[in-house]
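[AMINO ACID CHAIN]
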Amino acid sequence: MPHSTFPIIDLTKLQKYSNSWVPMCNDVRHALEQHGYFIALYDDNNRISKEIFDVMEELFDLPIETKKNNTSDFYFYQWVGQREQAPLHESFGIAHPNHVEELQSFTTLMWPQGNHKFHETVTSYVKVAAEVEQLVDKMVFESYGVAERHYESHVAATTYLLRPIKYTAPPPGAEDGIDNVGCNEHTDKSFSTLLFQNQINALQVETKSGEWIDVHIPPSAFVFMAGDAYEAWSNGRIYAARHQVLLKEDKQRYTLALFTFNKGITEIPEELVDETHPLQYKPFDNFGLAWYYLSGANSMSHSTAKAYCGINAG
């Protein structure tokens, strides 16, 4: 698997150099258009990184019977584990983790006696992660010149889903791409995804040319990834990259994935439609897109957005 250069953008510089705002907005947009993701450095996350993984270990150490209480009709909102097709993967779904009551409900579900440290640590983490997500969206919208008309309504429509994920170390002598698969290749059905991991690299992303590359993520850095809904909203300008997790180290890997889904109907900004970029997508329901994927109507290997709401979709 080749190593390649991948985009790294230090968002903390925005706090120091106001004249860097416009160029960095363009850098962020360009990274998502060309790569579908970028590594985001953000100083505020250094202080909480150890604590968040401490409470994640505590969460995954709970009995299976307790974990199974994390249920939902919506697959992405429930506990997933012990699956034959993904034996190394286990994850929870915490819906609306930025709302105190929702996070408290999840905490009480897992620890009926309460767990103040878990609740407070996740609250602090989500606050920082949501800041990064909103900052990136603001930069993209401004770079496209659509922030004034569309950003506030976009923020109002945004909902969050936090998925803590544990990947068990692969068995000794695991064959690459078979016994060490933590997550099969896919695009995200969200608008965006913000990933934060412990220091075990395993993420691979497919480039536009079809090459799979290992992504080496610095400690305490985020990975911002565009989902299928972001690609559709941008009228195909932004690239929703396929990615997968292949475990190479004999260590457990923990990842926090903060997904955003938009409520209601998402319109494609008319500013993003021109002669060079004719309209490719109809207005769409982000959750409808996710349900369409979960129905089995679209495989992991192809664009769910094009199949679900593309102008030429059947």
In short: The chain is about 30% helix and 20% strand. Residues 48 and 124 are 8 Å apart (CA to CA). The chain has a mean pLDDT of 92. The first strand starts at residue 8 and ends at 10.
